[in-house]
């Protein structure tokens, strides 16, 4: 079972910072070089959605593992969309090294995806991936190993081997033991849940075995082959400031239109409690260890939604972390709530033209308390004032669009805008950034979602909520 994390207070600066240096059990250099750490090979292209379904990237044994998900209808397959019942074919891609190709179309080819700083994907990169070669446990190596990357906002390990005797298990935790996750044997390996902070501790726990029975068996051990670590906040801010100096247009992911008026979500707690409460339903998606989008709970059931250019398959969802309550505790302060992290699970429906993916999470009971959002079934109106809760550039949750005159340009500019299809989008000038892909664009009048944000460029745009409500009615 995957273990859930409770909510505690940490240090906002430490959580937002991310290290460039990387070490395994000892300090390294600024370029991440350690004795066994080296930059990972470039990701291979992700299999795109086709009218016949989606190619799976997980080993067959993992795909067959039982998953607890809510029952869902199985609609007919249409071009550029899938459902879980679509036929699948296996590929030889490995979790953590797969990339993706952002959807394209004639009408949207010159529009920059909001989270498109990762080459070959539509996702914002917020960290670096290193190859390591560490074997733990039994006769192969130590029982305990630290992976330290000074200044990192998180450290995330990938196991290529989890071969243990019955009853033995592995934990990955922070040094204090206040965040910890347990893993059993897994012949195919897997990503571990990220550890907040700059150090992850891996420990093999064994049943009492005084005679060493089983140690002589070949192939036993726990192998770590990749480590992802989050960028420093200075790196993210430099990237953000550089993007502000670029004109709007192709390739621009930063989409602050004028001065950035977005603020920490908690700043709205007393002045705009409705917006603050709604912001709790959004989540930061950590994909492939180093890539970021935003997602949110849609409806009361176990349903999450993000962009198709963020993830498309159940195999990708399975290795995606979903962080709820990643928010600063005080307006403009340094304390942050420790996020409640769960895994993505099953993709229920996805569509390239309307740039959405609907999926479930594992451990839904631990995130129900954060509430949910509702799609507005009415077509957006010009001038309708908006607000956008989001995780721009991997930051703790922020909200663009204040009440009254302070709302500025955060309003519907064109309710009949062209996205990947004519009439598919609504445009606005609400401030967003790389990593905001998949954020809800919410009407102040109704507190319902009028658009699923996906394009930057000033004006920015999102897929109309009324269109999504109609397409997803059977699932919600």
Explain the overall architecture.
Helix content is 9%, strand content 29%. By secondary structure, it is mostly beta strands. The protein has 2 domains: 12-42 and 127-230, Jelly Rolls (Sandwich); 239-472, Thrombin, subunit H. Residues 1-39, 41-110 and 243-254 have low confidence and may be disordered.
Structurally, the number of domains stands at: 2
Q: Tally of extended strands? A: 26
Instruction: Report how far the terminal alpha carbons are from each other.
Output: 27 Å
Read across the widest sheet, the strand sequence of neighbours is 13-21-20-24-25-26-23-22
State Rg: 22 Å
Largest sheet geometry: 8 strands, antiparallel
Strand content: 25-35%
How many helices? The count is 6
- Low-pLDDT windows of residues: 1-39, 41-110, 243-254
Helix-residue proportion = under 10%
Shape: elongated
CATH C-level class of the largest domain is Mainly Beta
CATH architecture of the largest domain: Beta Barrel
CATH topology annotation of the largest domain: Thrombin, subunit H
SS-derived structural category: mainly beta
Summary, kept brief:
This protein has helices spanning 12-16, 60-63, 233-244, 273-279, 314-318, 465-472, and strands spanning 38-39, 81-82, 124-125, 127-136, 144-148, 154-163, 169-173, 180-183, 190-191, 195-196, 199-205, 221-230, 263-264, 282-287, 291-297, 304-306, 321-324, 340-351, 356-362, 386-390, 398-400, 412-417, 425-428, 440-443, 449-455, 460-464. With 476 residues, the protein is mainly beta. The protein folds into two domains: 12-42 and 127-230, Sandwich (Jelly Rolls), CATH 2.60.120; 239-472, Thrombin, subunit H (Beta Barrel).
């Amino acid at each position: 079972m995957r273990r859930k994390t409770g909510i505690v207070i940490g240090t906002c600066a430490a959580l937002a910072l991310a290290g460039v240096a990387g070490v395994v059990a000892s300090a390294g250099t600024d370029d991440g070089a350690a004795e066994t750490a080296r930059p990972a090979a470039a990701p291979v292209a992700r299999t795109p959605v086709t009218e016949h379904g989606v190619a799976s990237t997980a080993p067959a044994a993992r795909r067959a593992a039982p998953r607890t998900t809510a029952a869902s209808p199985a609609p007919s397959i249409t071009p550029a969309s899938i459902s879980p019942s679509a036929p699948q074919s296996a590929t030889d891609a490995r979790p953590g090294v797969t990339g993706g190709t952002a959807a394209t179309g004639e009408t949207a080819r010159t529009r920059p995806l909001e989270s498109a700083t990762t080459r070959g994907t539509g996702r914002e990169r917020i960290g670096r991936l290193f190859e390591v070669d560490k074997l733990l446990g039994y006769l192969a190596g130590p029982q305990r190993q630290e992976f330290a990357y000074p200044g990192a906002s998180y450290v995330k390990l990938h196991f290529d081997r989890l071969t243990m005797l019955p009853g033995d298990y592995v934990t990955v935790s922070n040094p204090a033991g206040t965040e910890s996750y347990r893993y059993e044997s897994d012949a195919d390996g897997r990503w571990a849940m990220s550890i907040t902070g700059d150090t992850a501790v891996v420990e093999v726990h064994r049943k009492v075995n005084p005679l060493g029975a089983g140690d002589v068996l070949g192939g036993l051990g726990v192998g770590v082959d990749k480590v992802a670590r989050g960028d420093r906040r200075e790196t993210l801010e430099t990237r953000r400031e550089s993007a502000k100096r670029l004109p709007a247009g192709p390739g621009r992911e930063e989409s602050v239109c004028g001065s950035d008026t977005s603020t920490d979500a908690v700043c709205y707690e007393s002045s705009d409690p409705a917006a603050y409460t709604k912001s709790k339903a959004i989540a930061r998606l950590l994909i492939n260890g180093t890539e970021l989008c935003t997602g949110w709970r849609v409806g009361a059931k176990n349903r999450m939604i993000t962009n198709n250019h963020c993830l498309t398959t159940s195999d990708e969802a399975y290795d995606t972390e979903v962080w709820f309550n990643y928010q600063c505790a005080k307006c403009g302060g340094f304390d942050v709530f420790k996020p409640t992290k769960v895994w993505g699970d099953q993709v229920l429906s996805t569509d390239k033209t309307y740039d959405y993916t609907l999926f479930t999470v594992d451990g839904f009971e631990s995130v129900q308390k954060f509430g949910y959002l509702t799609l507005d079934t009415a077509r957006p109106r010009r001038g309708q004032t908006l607000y956008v809760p989001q995780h721009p550039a991997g930051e703790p949750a922020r909200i663009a669009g204040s009440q009254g005159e302070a709302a500025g340009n955060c309003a519907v500019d064109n309710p009949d805008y062209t996205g990947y299809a004519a009439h598919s989008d609504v445009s606005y000038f609400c401030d967003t950034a790389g990593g905001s892909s998949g954020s809800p664009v919410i009407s102040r009048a109704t507190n319902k979602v009028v658009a699923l944000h996906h394009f930057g460029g000033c004006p920015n745009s999102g897929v109309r909520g009324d269109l999504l409500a109609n397409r997803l009615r059977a699932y919600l």
